[in-house]
Amino acid sequence: MFSSFRLSMTWMHTWVGLVLGYVLMVCFFFGALSVFDREIDRWAIPETRFEPQTLPSYDTMLRPIFEQMQPSRESLEEASARIGGRTPEFTPAAGFGAYTTHRDPVLELYSEYHVTNNPADPHDHVYGYATIDPRTGRQLPDDQLKIGSEFFYPLHFSLHFEWLDIGYWLVGIAALVMLAALVSGVVIHRKIFREFFTFRPNKQTQRSALDLHNLTGVVGLPFHFFFALTGLIVFAGIYFPVGHTMLEPVHELHEQREAAAKGLAFDPAGVPAPIASVDAMVEEAKRRWAARDMSGEVGYLGVTHVGDANSYVSVYRAGTDRVTLTGQGIHFNATTGAVILEEPSPSAVEGITDFMTGLHLQHFRHWMLRWLYVMGGLAGCACIATGFIFFVEKRKRQHAKAGVSGARWADAMAVTAVTGMVIAAVAILVGNRLLPAGLADRGVWEERIFWFAWLAALLHAAWRSAPVQQARIAPAWREQCWAIAVLAVAAVLLNWITTGDHLITTIGEGYWPVAGVDLSLLVSAAIAAFAARKLRLRELTATQPAGRTVDTAAEAAHA
């Protein structure tokens, strides 16, 4: 089929990159935003704009809140579907959990309840959730959308296609394809070192796009490789679900034996028992961490089999001083407060897995490295976007002469995946500041604004890409860049108007979560406006020379 291995790699690189590049754009862009998901949450929910807090007292604050929690409406609806539409019956809370990070002012709580009328699954559960202000115990409204951690973050790995885990599978396939595209890209670009230093922005669009594609691909190569690989490792349980499908009985038996080996009860005893002071257990856990030269705050606190003789308390350290995600858990007998188990260091295999997972999720405390993660993600976006542009520019004259519209629709999809995606991301922030605070299901309306804005960008791109069929530049790129600039500035102004937190205030007070989002929006607006002006100049000066515009080995390799 191909005269050389390099040409076969070129074909694969081109077409798998085009087909799944749209998914990878979402992964890279919203993955980059997810690096600062908590900061975006602070911007979106002004009630949470205070400094990060340590875990409050369980005995005096958290316990009363946990005892008042109930299963969420969504969890009950899912349980009802599992038991044939009947109303789920459940026990009092069987488990509690509290989670926080060094970037979280608020505290996430969850509660677990046994479903008693599902004979097909005796271990069926429903769950309740709450977010509180740890300074006062005040519960925040349930309908406020945490745009960063609850929308942008899951979007980059699930696409919000939850049915049958389709989104996870699409992202997993795209990650595998990306690894193949990275290898094939190295094969194609034999002069990879030279391309590290080559960018000619004032050349024709086709040449400049290829230069930038090569440059961002080479510079970000290590980042792109390890992020695709570690992402697959994080979700290996979904992509290879042997333990939860083919070997379900063995999987459950393993969990039971693992709990027994640790001295932790897998099932409740059915005998009521009081719970000792959890605060004292937390202090003992901190003392033991300090004795191991790992002093730190609590990241997760859990109580299992609440009110039962087999109840135990688990305290995990917030390991922000290391890459690995392991939190050095210590488990206590809930009735007596005695230590059941202080978890040992992980095995070599577990340690590698924890390190790779932590490398991807970057929960560690290192602001410079966080920004490098963002830059790496945006470099991935630039690499894919310029690949789209090169694909269209190389073929649009040929398609125009042949009277086919393939280049036009490829360009429209590229516009939607690049500028349209940014429009949707900024539009949800604008909607967040415009929607009334007391609006029912406010978070749902914010999500609708996001999807409607992206759909509008798709329709606009399809409409304004017609000039591509005449081998000209589509004005959709320029017009959507102006839309990004306007929306980004509007988001900053609306934040000022609705909360009073303008940049002079937030920078002066050193509150960088909000100041950082505002500054990022203004920088995005400036870049978008600059790009729009450049695109306008290109449209005015564009010519249609006969023959090839670029005749280099690198361009030939992308044919």
Structural overview:
Strand 4 and strand 5 (312-317) form a beta hairpin. Helix 8 (205-219) runs antiparallel to helix 14 (367-402) and helix 15 packs antiparallel against helix 16. The protein has helices at residues 5-34, 37-44, 58-68, 73-82, 147-158, 166-188, 192-195, 205-219, 221-234, 236-239, 248-262, 278-291, 348-361, 367-402, 406-434, 442-464, 475-499, 503-508, 512-541, 553-557; strands at residues 95-99, 107-114, 125-132, 298-304, 312-317, 330-333, 339-342. It is of the alpha+beta class and 559 residues long. The longest helix is centred in the C-terminal third of the chain and has 36 residues, at 367-402. It has 20 helices and seven strands. It is globular, with a radius of gyration of 27 Å. The model is unreliable at 544-559 (pLDDT under 50). Strands 3-2-1-4-5-6-7 form a seven-stranded antiparallel sheet. 59% of the residues lie in helices and 8% in strands.
